[in-house]
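Q: I'm writing a short explainer about Protein arginine N-methyltransferase 9 for a general audience and would like to include a description of its predicted shape. Could you first generate the structure from this sequence?
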Amino acid sequence: VSLIVTEVFDAGLFGENSLEILSHAWEHLLLRDTENNSSNEENGVSSTNSNHLDKSNVTVCQAKVIPYSADVYVVPVECEQLRRTFCLEDKVMQALDIKGVIPQYLDEEPYSTEKVSNLKLKYLSEPSRILQANFNSHEEIKLLLQGKVLNPSYKCIESGNLDAFVMWFDLHLDEMDKISTAPKKESDHGCWEQAIFFVLPQYLEGASSFCKIGDNIEAEFLCRGHFQLKKVKFSNSIPRNNFNQKLTMDPSLIYLLNSYVTGDVISLNLKDVSPVDNASILDISSFPILSLKFLKDSSNTVHVLKTQYQSEIEQLRDAHEISHERLIFKSYEDFCNNKMQCDFLIVDPVEMCGLLKKNLLEDVTVLRMQCLKDSGLVVPGEIEIHAVLVESATLKEHSKIVSDERVDGYKISQIMNAYKCQIHQDIQYSTLPHQNITNPFKLCSIDLNNKSESGTRSFFSNSLKTTEVEVITNGNVTAVIYWFTLKYHSNFLVNTSDPNGLWKQGAIVLDEEVQVSKGEKICLQYSLKNSCFQVGIINH
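A: Of course. Here's the predicted structure. Afterward I'll give you a sentence or two in plain language.
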């Protein structure tokens, strides 16, 4: 073929194996760039014929790829929110009595993605173009597949911690038209996120990540099929190779552990919840941080659920010389079959994405009956669900095709909207473009320590409940955004909508927007079954 149009690009440009795909297309699908007349001679056609144009040395552009090329831009940034995804908070390190951690990222996952316009960050320098990629040159594509080292240098115009490099690109469709994934300062329009390359301690060779105005930042990126950040150096920095004293940890675990700083839960002592001597603990949270902290200062026994973080748990167990008999790994089935009698059942009820953990209420009910003493307690003991009605064009656009005009007039909305999404996660309520239609309100409470038959049965019931809320402004209700308050103890409450916390929020987008007026009362109907929360507007 003479033309290929492709859209195999992600936020990091090459992350969807686009270079491999384009190289294969050049080798097997596209016509050659040069045309010679050897076949004509074989067929008896003479190139010396005065009426025949000699094409043997003429380059004829027969093949074309759209987009034609891309320009890649990178800028160093300071961002506390990004830092907390790879750097443990001091309070967490003190609680676990560790000197530091080395985040272990996989080579096949060299960057994360974020919508930078939703982050509070500071540019430490001006953005610079680090690569021009020509998709109409097979030789250049092969070079980028083999490996090309890029060494951008930046002059600091702001002082701060270098936490990450943000990458975006301009995709040139032809000489005139382009698509840019650059972060927008205005609202959340557009679907493009940007690639985030975290500046890990090992990239700095142990040197400080703080830079001052006038400092030079020298980075080394490798493009071998996709982009990787390999090394970062400051002018006048002093490397300190002290990694042998640090634990290795999955970045998702670092983010999870940092969430315990919210509400100061990391400082919770189980004896403040219930002063039990020689307490036995059953911990089914994703990482048993409260139990590990408790084990350091006691001779108690903890049974923990086998999770993806078992190797990190074992590292900490061995570092604190906790015997294997005191920290026991078991499966959910083991807990149910053994029928142990524990004083505490520790859970982490809410996923970081903002949704209630799958089957949480059912699991708590079963384990409470099978494994807890009559005097035993679930920690946290109570969950409150809070919500707010909002008008948000962004949530509406993320849920369905709002107009065929958005797709150049093609009549596809009726077909595509059969698959529209109602339940959303990873919503950042504090930065989402929206207007509150009501004040935030408490929808319901869930008492995890309610041992009555009615309390137990309610977790499995599909009964619908209703509540009324008052509208505070004229507008259209697009969605219900919700979050949770976790009550560990009287002095330890976690609000998962805290803008300084790490949790995101959930949202339920209505099938159709509901027009409302200030002062009007809205009736909401909600249910909670199998830990799945549903809410909607009725009688309107």
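A: For your explainer, you could say: DSSP finds 14 helices and 32 strands in the chain.
Q: Perfect, that's easy to follow.
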